[in-house]
């Protein structure tokens, strides 16, 4: 049994990068929702923060869906 160390390293790096990116996007989405609440308390609408949060969450969902697609297919 031979182990392809190059492929194993590549999978590790891609998984690590994907986890960091996904976590960062989700954190920015949560932060945007928090900033929206702060903007509403100060009399603003918070539309920009809500839009940014929705985009972050949509990208997170797309990445997760693509990962599931790769596993199932």
Would you kindly provide a brief summary of this structure?
The chain is an all-alpha fold and 73 residues long. The protein has helices spanning 5-41, 47-72. It is elongated and about 65 Å long.
Polypeptide structure, described:
By secondary structure, this protein is an all-alpha fold. The chain has one domain (18-72). 86% of the residues lie in helices and 0% in strands. It is built from 2 helices and no strands. Helix 1 (5-41) packs antiparallel against helix 2. The chain crosses the membrane at residues 7-30, 50-72. Keywords: Membrane, Transmembrane, Transmembrane helix.
Distance between the termini: 26 Å
Q: How much β-strand is present in the residues?
A: under 5%
Average of pLDDT? 93
How many separate helices?
Answer: 2
Helicity range: over 70%
Strand count, sense and barrel status of the largest sheet are: none
* Total count of strands: 0
What sort of overall outline do the alpha carbons produce when their principal axes are compared? elongated
Count of discrete structural domains = 1
* Topology pattern, helix = H, strand = E: HH
| Helix-strand category | mainly alpha
Features:
single chain; 73 residues; mainly alpha; 2 helices; 0% strand; elongated
Mind sketching the topology for me?
Layout: H1 5-41, H2 47-72
């Amino acid at each position: 049994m031979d182990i392809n160390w190059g492929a194993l390293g590549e999978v590790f790096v891609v998984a690590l990068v994907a986890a960091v990116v996904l976590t960062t996007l989700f954190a920015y989405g949560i932060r945007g929702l928090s900033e929206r609440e702060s903007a509403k308390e100060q009399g603003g609408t918070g539309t920009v923060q809500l839009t940014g949060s929705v985009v972050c969450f949509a990208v997170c969902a797309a990445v997760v869906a693509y990962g599931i697609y790769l596993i199932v297919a």
